[in-house]
Amino acid sequence: MDEKSNQVPSTIPRDSPRIDEDDDDSSPASPQRRSFHRSFTHASTTASHYLEGSSGKTFSVPQALKVDYIKQIMDHNEQLRNREFSYRPKQIESLCFSCIILPSLDLDPKEMQRFATPADLEGYEERQLYTLLLLQDPNVRLIFLSSLCVDPEVVSYYLSLLKINPRECLPRLFMLSPNESVSKPLSKKILARPQLLHTIRDIACENATYVGLCGYTGSPATIELAETLGIRLLTTRDVKSLHFGTKQGSKEIFSACNVPSAPGTPSKHDDDLLSTGDISKLQTRYWTDHCKYIRTPKDLSMGIARQIKNFSIKPKKWMIKLNQGFSGRGNAVLDLQQVQNHLYDDINDMANDIEKLLPTMKFECSAVTWAGNGFTGFRNQMQRLGCIGEALLEGDSLQSPSVQGVISQDDDGRPVVRILSTHEQVLNGQTYYGCIFPARSGYRKKLIEYGLRVGAELAKNGGEGYFSVDFIARKLHCKAWDLKAVEINLRKGGTTHPYVLLELLCKGKTDEEGVFHSENGEPKYYVATDGCLIPALQKVRKDALLHALLSGKHALAEEIKWNMEKKKGAVFHLFRFVDLKNMVGFTCIGSTREEAEEINRKTIHFLTALGEQCADTP
């Protein structure tokens, strides 16, 4: 988080997207979609398979017993990691599915330095602990990989959400870690440990009908890891296909499937402006080095000048984006008002004037400058990653919705695209902060339509696994919503965790109207955040929060905690950040939008009260 984001006072800022009264979803629900074939490839990427036929009694196990037992299991896992011989889990019989969770943030390392420290990355790995809920299916064996060992009390919290006795599922849970805190992705840490690789393979493959590696994103390292293990990777497996998750690749997909997007460069007329990376001048090689991108200030300026002069694209401001930037940290705003006000006879003169203005751009990340060194230098990162320039979309009632889907394969190997969810994204500047599910009814079906088009085009180009598409929605003069696609994330993202959590807890699915219905047909809504930054959290420690949630003795915690029978309440994540960054994430689920927002308010009240209580405790 940058300094600006640390000033956010609560979970949902005052200027967060609101749902108009006329957008209320009171119409009868459309028939639920017919579930896809029960194959592991699909199940591991959508979790929908695990929601069928896995009911059971709710067990109340004393916290001390649960944590003690979990510690025993995790100590045993640690012994497995250190053994020099093959481990064969003979005590587990006739399992069908082995799922390896790899929460490795395999993104550009220099961009990652802007976003987070090694400790931050380890905290974000734990965002995928919601996958522990897959253990409610007795046919699932789960191997969760992390850079550092996960706190047993955090594991206890997630297992407390299950409707089965933790003792029944713990023998099927293996949490393995290289226990290494360095600034490199988890996938590379594991690849450097042959002994750990051997253990992972043996545990995953013993008696398993299907085995899959579920990564955060496709990358050369995750592809190599899957090949080394001899296990199918359930994300994009072709390095060349990763291009379509970049800013330029997104534009190419939008053009190919007729999804409207903001005008910009490179366009189909700009091939002469594209170049591969100069390997001889780069300190380290990266997979984008061989891609043809706009990489120089001169080429970027000419591309923008062509849009202005040849196609009459004349916004006052332009957005410049690094191809592998994420969470908005690779973006900058370029003010071209003085160029737009000037009449140019020669396009080269216009391009030269634009190039002179590039150092004056307003960078989203406060640590970035135009000519800085290393990860702080925007110009250097342009050379490494390439960039695009596009018209900055402005207008009335500006919103930032998104659609999320998953690409899997049927039994014949043909791609299947499923839309999971639509959201209103809550942004702090251009940085993702949280989301509201579902998106407004005024454009929800159009989001789903565009999402299906993008998913089909991604599948044609080798895309697989989770993807999402960000949009800008504007009200036009006729009061209709205008949607423009912004970018594709060919990976899991901030909206993945809350939606899959909803599926696992409520055992339902999203209908054709984009509304989620639980197994009993009741609609469900949620408000989620990755970064509650209220001042009171500065006084709260992780152990105190977990004790309040698990002990059953804190009245406000009991009021908001997840209710298995009513299928509503708050579910927390990012516990490691309570101590590291004085923040925490949570998802508030209710049967109406208003109920979800009320649970969100009560959750903030609980955290505020807990902070005051901790401040008064010596």
UniProtKB/TrEMBL annotation:
Gene3D superfamilies assigned: ATP-grasp fold, B domain (3.30.470.20)
Organism: Leptocylindrus danicus
Stretches for region Disordered: 1-39
The name this protein goes by in its record: ATP-grasp domain-containing protein
InterPro entries to which the protein is assigned, alphabetical: IQCH (IPR038752)
Highest taxon listed in the record's lineage: Eukaryota
Bias type Polar residues, positions: 1-10
